[in-house]
Amino acid sequence: MLAPTLPTDPWLAHEDGWLAPFAVRTTDSGGRRHPEPPHTYRTAFQRDRERIVHSSAFRRMTGKTQVLVASVNDHHRTRLTHTLEVTQVARTVARRLRLNEDLTEAIALAHDIGHPPFGHAGEAALDECLRTFGGFNHNLYGLRRVDELEERYPEFPGLNLTYELREAFVRHAAKLDAPEMAEFVRHRSPPLEAQVVDVVDSLAYDTHDTDDALGLGFITLDDLKEVEFWQRCTELTRRRHPTLSGHAFRTAVVRELLAWQVTDLVEETSRRLADIQPASLADVRAAEQLVGFGADVRRMKRGLEQFLRERVYRHHRVLRMTANGKRILRALFDEYVKSPELLPERHLRRWAGASAVAGPPADPILPGRRLVPHLEVVVGDYLAGMTDRYAQQEYRRLFQPNADL
Ligand code: MG
Fold first, then answer.
1. Phi and psi at residue 74, in whole multiples of 5°?
2. How many Å apart are CA 254 and CA 393, to the nearest integer?
3. Residue 227: pLDDT above 50?
4. Can you give the pLDDT at residue 45?
5. Residue 362 — φ and ψ, nearest 5°?
6. 124 exposure class (CB count in 10 Å sphere: 0-12, 13-18, 19+)
7. Which residues share a beta bridge with 260?
8. How remote is the CA of residue 228 from the centroid of ligand 1, in Å?
9. Using CA atoms, how far apart are residues 384 and 83, in angstroms rounded to an integer?
10. What is the pTM of this model?
11. How close is the Cα of 113 to the center of ligand 1, in Å?
């Protein structure tokens, strides 16, 4: 029988016994903004992971566009299923390289929670709306979500995640001049766990966007003849399964495409680690990016990505959906800024009264930033949290005379 309270130490001993010397140990963590006592039997990164899964931003990824608006049909990827694909591949890579799997998993689950509705079009629309307020970036919004906007715990605002989780958002944003960067610029590179998620993200979407585009009939197998990576995976599949055809053949090629990239990533990264021989996390942080693909796969991925840009992301049905999404966000933004009383009370409360005081107090953690945000920023945060469907419904409720209120 388990003792009612287990000591934390065996779990940390497990990390010491298993992890590579350059992996992140729980004891290396830069800690939380609001200090908390350690949990009896979960490491700090396990707790991060579970806080993310229980957040409302995580659940809403079910209804958010990856490439296609989430409600188009039930088969293509949404933000959430993309996230789960990234997470499982990232865990495989982390375990193979003896990195901290809990940290990798937590970063992967969190990596897209800052995406607004309607994918990159939604991000572009919000960036335009907020131009004079520093613009909009989904990674910095993700950080704000986990630092402030999630309301789940009485002891602190947000999810109070560890430094390493928060750093991963900011690194991804690559906006060196953002005030949020200040506490993270002391290192040259993020830990390998964050690098793995970053690279796995790209291999996951290159693969599943090709699969979805085929499934939806945006492109045909014939169109892909011009893509070297696809062609080489096709040849491998034909050799392995000479009688396969139709849907079974397509999914076998997609699997080959994924497996090739994952294996190459593990092999190339292992080679670089063997060359440089980092002895600690500090060595990884002082080095250049170490996780990556070999030259062959890099070249073939570039070809595939160019094809996706030209034939899928600019397909007229994708453009029609995203133009519609942009229009919806722009109209909602203008309407709420004009009439803030239409905002739900919780959002209105973040801004209300700001104009009544002479100078709003500065944020104690990020001095230089207003603690009471501008109305436009509050509206932007509200819109960014919406799912595609909620934004569409809200648009109908505000602008259509016969809408169901
Ligand atoms: Mg992603």
1. -100, 5
2. 35
3. yes
4. 97
5. -80, 155
6. middle
7. none
8. 24
9. 18
10. 0.91
11. 9
Ligand 1 centre from 109 Cα, in Å?
Answer: 9
Phi, psi of 75, rounded to the nearest 5 degrees: -105, -35
Q: Residue 385 C-alpha to ligand 1 middle, in angstroms? A: 16
From the CA of 80, how far away is ligand 1's center (Å)?
9
Output the CA 79–ligand 1 centroid distance in Å. Answer: 7
Distance 335 CA to ligand 1 centre (A): 30
* Residues 327-376: tens digit of each pLDDT: 999 999 999 999 999 999 989 988 875 544 445 555 555 555 556 789 99
Q: Is the dihedral of CA 198, 213, 257, 295 positive or negative?
A: negative
| Residue 362: both structure tokens together | 């500065």
Spacing, Cα 112 to ligand 1 middle (Å): 5
Per-residue HEC secondary structure of the chain comes to CCCCCCCCHHHHHHHHHHCCCCCCCHHHCCCECCCCCCCCCCCHHHHHHHHHHCCHHHHHHHHCECCCCCCCCCCCCEHHHHHHHHHHHHHHHHHHCCCCHHHHHHHHHHCCCCCCCCHHHHHHHHHHHCHHHCCCCHHHHHHHHHHHHCCCCCCCCCCCCEHHHHHHHHHHHCCCCCHHHHHHCCCCCCCHHHHHHHHHHHHHHHHHHHHHHHHCCCCCCCHHHHCHHHHHHHHHHHHHCCCCCHHHHHHHHHHHHHHHHHHHHHHHHHHHHHHHCCCCHHHHHHCCCCCCCCHHHHHHHHHHHHHHHHHCCCCHHHHHHHHHHHHHHHHHHHHHHHCHHHCCHHHHHHHCCHHHCCCCCECCCCCCCECCCCHHHHHHHHHHHCCHHHHHHHHHHHHCCCCCC
